[in-house]
Amino acid sequence: MSTQRLKVILNADSDYDIRVGVGVLDTFASRLRDETDAEKAVVITDSNVGPLYLERVREGLTQAGFEAFDLTVPAGEESKSIAVASELWEALALLGLGRDGLIVGLGGGVAGDLAGFVASTYMRGVDCVQVPTTLLAMVDSSIGGKTGVNLVAGKNLVGTFKQPIHVLADLETLRTLPTEEWDNGFAEIAKSALIDGPEFYQWLEGNAEALLAHDEEITQQAIVRALTFKARVVASDVTEKGQRECLNYGHTFAHALEAASGFRISHGRAVAEGMRFAARLAVEAVGAPAAFADAQDALLNRLGLQPITEAFSADELYGRMFSDKKVRKGALRFVLAQAPGQWESVAVDPDLVKIYLILWEQAKM
Amino acid sequence: MSTQRLKVILNADSDYDIRVGVGVLDTFASRLRDETDAEKAVVITDSNVGPLYLERVREGLTQAGFEAFDLTVPAGEESKSIAVASELWEALALLGLGRDGLIVGLGGGVAGDLAGFVASTYMRGVDCVQVPTTLLAMVDSSIGGKTGVNLVAGKNLVGTFKQPIHVLADLETLRTLPTEEWDNGFAEIAKSALIDGPEFYQWLEGNAEALLAHDEEITQQAIVRALTFKARVVASDVTEKGQRECLNYGHTFAHALEAASGFRISHGRAVAEGMRFAARLAVEAVGAPAAFADAQDALLNRLGLQPITEAFSADELYGRMFSDKKVRKGALRFVLAQAPGQWESVAVDPDLVKIYLILWEQAKM
């Protein structure tokens, strides 16, 4: 099984490489020497991932001639805060990181989002390398350039668009990944396959069991397929003004559900449930065939993403959807699909949304 | 005297208008309607400027159909902090500003830098209009897209590049401007003229007294000339990787001097002193004629920017220069000029810098 390399080309001036393989953690730093003049590199990681992989990353950086430092934040969503970002900014200044310095984000979405945000704003932007260590971060947050921290008022309300200069996904890091984290990745892969089209979708249908069993070869293929899809979407719409909306398939409902559960329901399970909801809404809103919703249900089940069994109030979910930052002019926009690869972004009558939320709530009771 | 309009064209996808005139504060909002779909507009201003101009700006926004809000921060550099930015981010969320919302920065550099930074990071970026009310902000910080807040570790260490969608400079707002603020603007205008070339420089030599007397027509011309110059430089180098370095003429020394004085010495006086220092260093470092330094001295004097009379330690200034974020790889880079329009960015032998700092210190004692 060899390392696979993808190139993300955003425009004439901006492109970067993604490497997916086993052991890239040890070899990436030497490749970076061609891409940066940085003398200092600061690894930002969290208290779960740091003990597992930090030494290898630091060792690689040092051998490649970087002066390597690290900053570790507490694991968990609470670290995606302005307070923690402030501490990181001050620490970078104390370490003497200059404008030509390098920041390496090592970890899941929290470490990556924080590292990306801090890198995009420290001295008006320094280079950043993303080293995602969860399946979700590998297929989703590590590319696309969306960074973010949370406010008291809501998640990801502060952030930037910041493209990394390199992304490295080492499949070895998945060997220690908890089940819930696999679920998060599977949901994003399922979403990507559905939006991308029949080829990826059918591949996923043919390999769902192998993926569920964490087969490393199939996992690599799934990551590369999801990344190839996402890279193409991001390149067509760097600052999320149009095409990129498709990535939000299932997410309007998911964000409301996550919040309503006090974030007890994981992102992956919420997205899978959101995909189920969207497929049913699509029957009424855009005339999608009911069989499509059933087929999508079956695939999600085979990936271990069973329907959630707990009910949440339709009123509450409705209210939370309207506070989502994707609400424009008071209309609720949904990405709705009729078949793999056939999707559209539509403004749905709020009353219709309400009806389907009530139906959803009743089905769970 | 009629309003003058300039267009800043950054690239094929990004351009914006600057309007300079009397009374544009009352008329700008109606023009904005063509440039934004925003329903809500939040004015960010400070406690000095708010009482003078906020009502007119809000009135204009309301008449143009915006739902207008305002957030006022305490006047002064202390407000350029992460803590104040945090309060603004949370307040924007509570006001329900969406991704299509508009932020208006009304005030001097502090309000503009803060508003720009918050706008560039709130929901990964919302549109921003800059309404500078000081001469310095009009000719300098309102365009160029540099935003920033201060850390404990240093000034402007956190920030972004964020281009406004519109800049409005109302000459009426200068009628209440304190002398020190005029000095700040004059120093930037002198720097711009010197870097731009003989045409602007000779115009400034011919109009120094009228400018010093705050003649409104001449002030408008000076602003338009300085903006035209800066817009051209910024357009050639949006993220400050090369050409834009010229804007730092006099600034390496100035930043060290400001910091050494505990910011008692104003930015304008420090920049003027930095220009004097650079012209002398240029004699040795790049073979500039001594007569050029004398001519530049004379122009600065005529603009009321006399040499500072207080001495600061050469050692301290030297140390502070090396902590400046423009230091790359331990070399001190200076923008040095030999004549109006003839400048270069050069790495200067640190020992030579030290010698000139000692000469400077001795001359002040």
Q: Which CATH top level class of the largest domain in chain A fits? A: Mainly Alpha
Largest interface between protein chains, with number of residues from each side: A-B, 37 and 37 residues
According to CATH, the fold-level topology of the largest domain in chain A is Dehydroquinate synthase-like, alpha domain
Number of strands of chain A: 11
How many distinct folded domains of chain A? 2
Helix content of chain A: 40-55%
Characterize the structure shown.
The structure is a homodimer of 365-residue chains. Chain A is of the alpha/beta class. The first copy, chain A, folds into two domains: 4-177, Rossmann fold; 181-364, Up-down Bundle (Dehydroquinate synthase-like, alpha domain), CATH 1.20.1090. Helix content of chain A is 48%, strand content 19%. Chain A is built from 13 helices and eleven strands. The first copy, chain A, has helices at residues 24-32, 50-63, 82-94, 109-121, 135-141, 179-196, 198-212, 216-236, 251-260, 267-286, 290-302, 314-322, 350-364; strands at 4-11, 14-21, 40-46, 67-73, 102-107, 127-132, 149-151, 154-158, 166-170, 332-339, 342-348. Chain A has a seven-stranded mixed beta sheet with strand order 1-2-9-6-5-3-4, sandwiched between helices. In chain A, β10 (332-339) and β11 (342-348) form a beta hairpin. In chain A, α1 packs parallel to α2, α7 (198-212) packs antiparallel against α8 (216-236) and α10 (267-286) packs across α13 (350-364). The longest helix of chain A has 21 residues, at 216-236. Chain A is globular, with a radius of gyration of 20 Å. The mean pLDDT of chain A is 93. At the A-B interface, α3 and β8 of A face α3 and β8 of B.
